[in-house]
Amino acid sequence: DGEVHINELKNGNTETFWNPTSEVRRQRLKRHIVLFEEQTDFESERLWQHVTNAINKGDQHKATQEKFVLEEEQRNAARERRENGTEWKPLLFRHDATTNEWHYKYEDLRPWDPLNDIAQFEKNGILQTMERHGISPRMTNHKTTCINNQIARHKRSAKDCRRRKASDQPSNHSQNTESSCSTPESVQELSDDDGKYLGFESLCAQCGKEMNHLKEIHSAVLSLQRAQQDIHR
C-alpha cells in the first residue's frame, strides 16, 4: 500500500514507480473474507493461527515450534496413507503430468468484465463471480464447450469460403474484387429476422443470455472493419 521508488545509482535521481493514491484504492475490488468461526480446520487462517500469533508477538522461537508441529502432522498423515495404500485426491487442484505442475481446477483466465462482473468471492474453495444476471462461476464448462463448438464451426465455414474464393479468382488478377463470401477477417452480418448471430445460430438456451453481448461486440467489429476499409482505400 506504500509508494515504490526507483533509485538511479549512477546519477542519484529518484523516480516514483507506483503510488497507490486514494483514487487507486477506490478502484480496488472489494475483499470478502470468510469469518474465522466459519472456517474449517484445514483453512489457512485457522490452521496457521498459532504460528501467526507467535509472529505477531515477535516470538520467532514459538512460531518455529508451532510450524514444526503442523509439518510433522502432515508428514505423519502422508506416511499413514502410503502404508495403507490410500491415494490422495485433491479437491481443488489437478496435476499436469506434462509440466509436473499443480493447477487450480477452477482457474479462470478470462479478463475481468466491468460491464457484467460485480464482485469475486470464494465458496467451498471455489472462486466464483457475482455477475449482473446472478452468481455463477466466471465461465462454466458448459458455456465454454458450447461457444468453442460454435467458433470451430464458424472457422470451418470461413475456411471453405476462402477455398471457394481462391478457386474462382484468376491467377493474374491483381486488384481486390467484390465477393459474395466474406473474407477471413470479416464477420458475418446479423439477421434482423431471427436476431441471431450467424455462425453462432445454434447456441443453446443456457447461453442465450450472452447474445446481446455478442451483438454489441459484432457491431463494434463491423465499425472497425469499415474504418480499416476506408484507410485501405
UniProtKB/TrEMBL annotation:
Q: Name one GO molecular function term.
A: lipid binding
Query: InterPro entries under this entry?
Result: OSBP_sf, Oxysterol-bd
Task: One Pfam family, please name it.
Answer: Oxysterol_BP
Q: Where is the composition biased (Basic residues)?
A: 152-165
Q: Where is this region: Disordered?
A: 152-192
Feature: compositional bias, Polar residues: 168-189
Q: What's the protein here called?
A: OSBL5 protein
Lineage, please? Answer: Eukaryota, Metazoa, Chordata, Craniata, Vertebrata
Designated gene of the protein: Osbpl5
